[in-house]
Each structure stands twice: as C-alpha cells, then as structure tokens.
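Hi R.,

As promised, here are both runs. First protein below:
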Amino acid sequence: MVSGCVWLLNGDVKFLAVAGRKGGNGSRSNYRRNTPAHNTLSFPRRLRLTSETDLEVVRRTGKRIQTEHLEARASASLLPHPRVGVVVPKHRRRIVDRNRVKRRLRELVRTRLLPDLNRRIDLLIRAKPEAYKATFQDLAVDVISIGQWAAGVSG
C-alpha cells in the first residue's frame, strides 16, 4: 500500500505528501472492512416468548410460583431450548418506571436465569406492583429462586 495515496470521487488515485501525513490509509473508505462480531451476551430472540398465543398458553396451563416481587408460570415446551417471557404491567406507574423494571428483569433473565436453565420449558415472569419499589438485588434474588424452582418443575 502506498503512503500518501488519496482516492478521488471519480475513482482515480492522487498521490499527495499531505495525504500521507493526514493518516490516509490508501483505502476508499475509512469504515471497518469486517462487521463486528455478534454480541454473545444478548438475549436472543429464539429464547424469548414473544407471540401472544405462546404467552397465553403458558399463562393458562403453566404451574405457578410467587415471590415477593414476581409471579412466574412454567410449562413444558416442545422446543429443545428454554424460552422466557417478561411481562411488566403498568400498575398505574409512569412508563419510565415500567421500562426500568423491564430492563432489570431482562438483564437478570439473560445473565442469571438462562445460563442455568437447561430444560425444555417455557417460563413467563410477571412483575407485581411491589417490583417497582424493589432494588436490582431484590429482583435478582427473586429471579434466582424462580430459576431454581423452574429447574425442578416437571412440565
């Protein structure tokens, strides 16, 4: 690659000493050539309960547990991996508060529940009104206890 090479709009190359000093790298674009690697710490769509019919099936047929801040229902799944849905009703709170609770629960499900959940299970977690006043650590304790309970549920 030649130092001091600048690509012009018409595709021609112009050699300038100034371009070499400005950090020109000789490529047509200053963007990265490769796309960034996929974030492996995400909450993949295939592990989420997203459709209303799936949520309703788990809501009606699933076994239920309640913690101080959360309610969970679990039912057997035909898929080879677990799926988790998070429902946070407004409970007459501001949307900002609701979004905070949703983000916290999604993060806890992603980091603390899914890695330990090795069963064919659909799990629906619903926030109670008390979840709005809970700290992140309080919600973490509840999610961990739900995970331990779900590991023992026999569908």
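And here is the second one, sequence first, then its structure tokens:
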Amino acid sequence: MPMDVAGKAIVVVGGASGLGLATAGLLAKAEAKLAIIDINPSSLERCIATLASPDLIVHGICGDIVPKAEAVKLVREAAGKLGRIDGLVNCAGVYPRRPILDITDEDWDFDWKINVRGTYNTMAAAVELMRGQPLAGKVRGRIVNVSSVDAFKAHPQNAHYAATKSAVVSLTRSFALEFAPDQILVNAIAPAGIATEKAKGSGFLPELASHTPLGRNAELDDITSWIGFMLGEGNNYMTGETVIVSGGYIFA
C-alpha cells in the first residue's frame, strides 16, 4: 500500500510497546517525525533507545491520558516538540478477559477509562490543534484509532472489552463527521489476534488462530501497514471508516 509519511509529524499514543511500538518503528523507517506518548517510563526509555538514530526525530513524553487535562498537556507538548501534528495514532489500550457474568465494576471502570476516555481525550486535544493548522496537501491532519474485530463479533469472554471497542468505532465516526469541514480525516482499524509478546504470553492466540480462516494470527506488520496507509498521502478522502483486518475471523 502507498505510504508517504516522510517528514510528517506524528504522535503515537501507547507507542512504547506492542502494536504501538511496531507502528512507531514502521513510521520511523518511513522517515516520519515522531512523538511517543506512554505511561510506562521504562518502556518509553527502551522505545526511544530502540528508535534512536542520527536521521530520526523522535521524542518521548511520559504521562497518563485518562485525566483530560493531562492528556491535553501531553498532546500539546508533543505538538510543541514537533512543530505541528499531521497524524495521531491511538494505540493505548487494555485487553482483559472475563466471563460475561463475572465482570466487575472495577473491570468496567478500568476498561472504559483507558480504551474510551483516553482515546477521546487525545483525539479532542489533537483536533483542537489540527484545525488551526494550514493545510498539508489536501488535509490538515489524520487520526487513526485502534478498535478491534470484537467490536463487530460476539465474544462472551471479553464482552466489556468489546463494548469499549464498539465505542471507539462510534467515536471515530462522530469525530470524522464533526471535523470533516476542517479537512481532518478520522479512521480506525479493527484487528484480530495480533501476535504481540503480551498476547503470546496470555495463551489465547492458538485458540484464536484455530477459528481464523487463514489459520494464523496477525503479525504486527499485517496491521501497521494499514495504519501507515491511513496516516499517509495515499489517504486523502477516506474518513469515518473502520477497516477490519482479521484474516477472515469476522466471518467465522
């Protein structure tokens, strides 16, 4: 897929591990200017050390996106370091598994505040800055949110997670409609079964692969390539969409 992000200022939220780190690595290779926001200082330090090179602009910003005031501060700090924000990727999230009748109030609060409130907070902060920027080509900015195939497929073992990822799809559409006149594109990706190190340790990937028509889990680059496309000059018209990349799991 065409991906032209060279020189673009992109903020990756939750970029110090997993899909976020893989996304940051892809964007770095494509010569984007990066700011990585993450709550884990040690992971963030390792991420910056991994990506560091004389030819790459990358900034690490540590903080919590759940309180709105702090999320706004973090995004504004990223914009200050980069000069503007051409792209925002929301990769921060949690993936708990719990039988549907055992979900607690604490489970709901934990899932919702990170997967939904945090995503909303960074989007809101980013569009406030993007809408005041001059056009870069045909658009002022691009946002990509990470949802999940579980937003579209019943999964009683993580119903609360699926509900939050459905909310991400809805937020994506609402932001896309509201800020289309500002030429800000807002899209999402809904992957299934990404073989991150954390997911490998959880033990559910073999089961998921067995229910996937392609017979395997997604590798990180199966997903990051789509994120890169939606952030780049190859995408000048798609907005409000959620791209499902599940190896056919959505139909199984």
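A quick note on the second one: The longest helix spans residues 105-130. Let me know what you think.

Best,
J.
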